[in-house]
Amino acid sequence: IEKASGKSYWQFLDERIFKPLGMRATSNTDPQPIVPNRASGYEWKNNRFENRPVLLPAIAFSAGSFLSKAEDMAKWDAALYSEKLLKKSSLEQMWSAQVTKDGVALPFNYGFGWFVDSYHGHRLVQHSGGTPGFSSVIYRFLNDKITIIILTNHGDRVLDQLAVDLAGIYLPVLKRPEANPDPDPATTSRLKDVMSGLLTEKYESASLTPEMRSFLGTASGKALWKWIADHGTLGSFVFSDQEDRGDGQVLRYKVSLGGNSYWFSVLMTKDRKIVQIYWW
């Protein structure tokens, strides 16, 4: 961005996005300015909350150094339903999942800065994020024109289950069943064993596609499952629902980690290899 525009990253965002959309409360996380109602960040450690310092813009840069509030994020969301920021063709490209050069699905359906998914035909683009002391998520059900934005000052937590549940409260067709009769208990048991192995770094790789095995061997893959493991010990693993998708099937579960409930989905091929596991 800086090379193409000849401006600093923050100046470019301010001139091209924040000011045109009236996002007056959005800026970088520079700790020097006095910002009314600026939230402090916390993290739960050793059974108590601890302060977390601000992640400086020079460190996190474009990965996560924003101050904002829900009202400003709602203005940005509204702009994404128009062509105020980007052409419709650019938005569609941004929300199209990338594949390998051989057309094989990657370990995540990811476009340009957005995870891409659907729930029984309801198109979804979303992203979560976290820095020391803060966590956030945005879920956009495109065809339903429902957006869930959650900003918290609790460090680096999975919030996706809250976004999923809030969407289901507003639009019941998006509500996930707490439990359903399990059509294949053996597969559920196997998937629970796989997830348990991923959380303890002792998984059975034969259950995974080559692309998934490759991802789990990367620094990003290892850090991802370390982050999920930090949420606590795996408990219940309850079947919620399933849907056919392309050449495979998505199985969804309500999973307990550290006594708290989360939604997890597993995409499997017809020969029951695991293509993707994701926390929504």
Offer a quick outline of the entry:
With 280 residues, the protein is α+β, with helices and mostly antiparallel strands. The protein contains 9 helices and 12 strands.
Structure in words:
The protein has 280 residues and is of the alpha+beta class. It has helices at residues 2-5, 9-18, 57-60, 70-80, 88-94, 160-170, 185-200, 210-216, 219-229; strands at 27-28, 41-45, 48-52, 66-67, 115-119, 122-131, 134-141, 146-152, 234-245, 248-257, 260-269, 274-278. The protein folds into 2 domains: 39-55 and 66-174, Beta-lactamase, CATH 3.40.710; 185-278, Nuclear Transport Factor 2, Chain: A (Roll). The strands form 4 sheets. Strands 5-6-7-8 form a 4-stranded antiparallel beta sheet, with helices on both faces. A 4-stranded antiparallel beta sheet has the order 9-10-11-12, with helices on both faces. Strands 1-4 form a two-stranded antiparallel sheet. The chain is globular and about 55 Å long.
**Approximately how much helix is present in the residues?**
25-40%
Helical segment count: 9
Beta content: 25-35%
Derived structural class: alpha+beta
Shape: globular
CATH H-tier superfamily of the largest domain: DD-peptidase/beta-lactamase superfamily
Enter the CATH topology name of the largest domain.
Beta-lactamase
Report the count of strand segments.
Answer: 12
Strand order, largest beta sheet: 5-6-7-8
CATH architecture of the largest domain: 3-Layer(aba) Sandwich
Distance between the termini: 31 Å
Number of domains: 2
What is Rg?
Answer: 20 Å
